[in-house]
Every structure is written in C-alpha cells, then in structure tokens.
Amino acid sequence: MSSIVNVSGLGKTYEGGFTALHSVDLEIREGEILALLGPNGAGKTTLISTICGLTNATSGSVTVGGFDIREDWRAARRLIGLVPQEINLEPFEKVGNTVRFSRGLFGLPRDEALIDRVLKSLSLDDKKDERIRHLSGGMKRRVLIAKALVHEPRVLFLDEPTAGVDVELRRDMWELVDQLRADGVTIILTTHYIEEAEAIADRIGVINKGELLLIEDKAALMARLGKKQMVIELAEPVDAIPAGLMDFDLTRSDDGRGLTYTYEAGGKRTGITRLLAAVQGAGLVLADVETKQSSLEEIFVGLVHEGAA
Ligand SMILES: Nc1ncnc2c1ncn2[C@@H]1O[C@H](COP(=O)(O)OP(=O)(O)OP(=O)(O)O)[C@@H](O)[C@H]1O
Ligand SMILES: [Mg+2]
To answer: What is the pTM of this model?
Structure first.
C-alpha cells in the first residue's frame, strides 16, 4: 500500500522551551484508518497540527500526497481536512454559510449540491439556515466536520471527534468514518476512547511524552501484546497450588477456589490441554472454566506505564 503522508524527524519545541514532539517518524498509508492514542498532554494535537501545517515544526519534514507542507503548502493543504479538538465557529453565522465559506477558502467553485450532501450525511440538512449559536455542542461538532469535508479532502484528521458527544453521535461518527473510508479517504483520529480505536482503526499508534512509542496493525498488536487468561473454578478449595501444577504460571484466588492461568494470546501452544490434564492428575475437580482476553485498554495502559518508567 502506498503512503499518503510522510513524517520524518518531526520535532516541536514551543516558545518557552517545552518540547512537545521528539523527532517523530510516521508513514500513513493511503486509505487506512489510523488511531492515535495517548494520555492528556502526550502531543497528539501538536502532532496533528504540525502535520497539517498549522503549527510550524522546529525540525523535520512532512509531505502530504508528495507535497511538502511548507514549500508546497497550498497543494498539500488542499488534500487535508482537519476537525480540530476545540470548537472555533463564528456564533452569529449560519450553518450553510459557514460551510460554504470553508470551501471558498480553497478557491473552489460553489457547489450547493455537494454542501447539501455533506450536511445530510451529518444529519444537519434541517439546520442549514440555523445560526451556530443556536446549536448544541454535538451539532457544532458536526458542523466542524462538515467544514473539514466540503473541499473533498483525501486525508482527514479528526482530533478527538467523539470527546463529550453522546452515544448516538458517536455511532453516527463511526458510520461516517466507514463511509469516508469506502470513498478512499485516509483518516487519522485521536481518541481517549480505546474501545473506539479497537472498533474502527486499522492501525494504532501510541504517543506518550512527545514520542511515538509504537505504531502497529491493530490485530498484530493485540496478538503480540494481548494476554489470555483461563480461570479454573474448583469444586473444592485448595490451600496451595498442588505440586503437580507448579510448572504452570498459575495464581490462586484468596478463597482457594480459583486458579488463574495466563498465556500469550498469539502463541501457538497455549499449554491448556497439558494444564487440564495436570489438574485432573492432581485429583482436582473442575466446577467451571472461563477464558478472558486482555483488551486494547490493558495493552495501552501497560505501554504508557512502561514508557513512563
Ligand atoms: N501553544 C503551546 N505553547 C506551549 N506549550 C504547549 C502549547 N500547546 C501545547 N503545549 C504543550 O505541549 C504538550 C502536548 O500538548 P498537546 O495539546 O499536543 O497534547 P494532547 O496529546 O493533544 O493532549 P489532550 O489529550 O489533552 O488533547 C502539553 O504539555 C502542552 O502543555
Ligand atoms: Mg489534544
């Protein structure tokens, strides 16, 4: 798959001397959905706004569709849509005008049918003549998205599109992302909702303290770092882990009724068959068996803590 955004050695030190990005390298593939995860202050917004050319990098370079964001900023920006984290709309302006104006900024001809289509895809079709200040927070967020889409960008950056929005809008947003992906738009989103990244992303990047800790295919990441657990419930409690089971990575619950076995989710040999045979061999009777897989959330928390150590 060819790449559409190339970020090389990107660094940002703000006035005052704080370094929010340390030499980030990142290649974004055409048509993918990339989710960037990271705690507050990790540098997600800085990374996005530097890629989009809204913030000047201190070092490194960015190209979008082959155009350098500084040398060829007009061509590069034409390919980019950005939905910022902060709502920055003109309160007295009408929805339709706001969106129309955004398209005009790119020097594109008026296209009322396109504007209507975009508004409709965001369930804003009945709000075209409404003033921004009369909209709810979630509707304003939809207007931000409409503004970012109306020049038909090939790469869309969504900086926490679902922060503080209700369940319904979140679902709409995911549907819209799906629709855009089907149209071939590349999407980069930041989120604090790990289940969101788990649900919609192809690849996951984790940022902490201005560094990209990893970037990996979601499935591979979960297979590599995910742990599985099997919880064995015993018919009769045990005082200690029986000698015949010492070879296994087992923990005993406080009441002695549960034994938890942890193994690699991606591993070919899980050891489960051997363990169950050993349990039987030790004369224990099973009451129940349950398996659990770690979520992306656990992987993420583990990574960020490791990085902080
Ligand atoms: N204009 C600025 N001047 C100085 N420091 C800044 C500026 N903007 C951001 N920072 C600092 O850079 C760091 C990264 O901020 P950034 O907004 O990129 O984080 P983030 O990952 O988007 O966080 P959040 O999840 O809260 O949105 C923070 O420590 C922040 O205080
Ligand atoms: Mg941010």
So the answer is: 0.81
